Write the structure tokens for this entry.
Amino acid sequence: MTKWATVSRCASYDVLVKLVQNVAKVDATRYNLQLYSLAFTISGIGRPRIENDNDVSCMMNEDKLILELKDIDSKLQFQ
């Protein structure tokens, strides 16, 4: 399923993570999010990971951007 959300160009990493958690309905106490952007280049598609405010700023300065929620890793430890 694909969902759209409006993101401010001056959004911080924390704001972006909270937005993704809300849109994807992900429980932050149970899962770690890994955010990636899709970058289209002459040589193919890159998937830079978004890890901090600087990454968000660079991503938001692109004319065309697509945010991808790639992995949701459980924080729960099974014993």
Observations:
- The chain has one domain: 13-74.
- The longest strand covers residues 31-41.
- The first helix runs from residue 13 to 24.
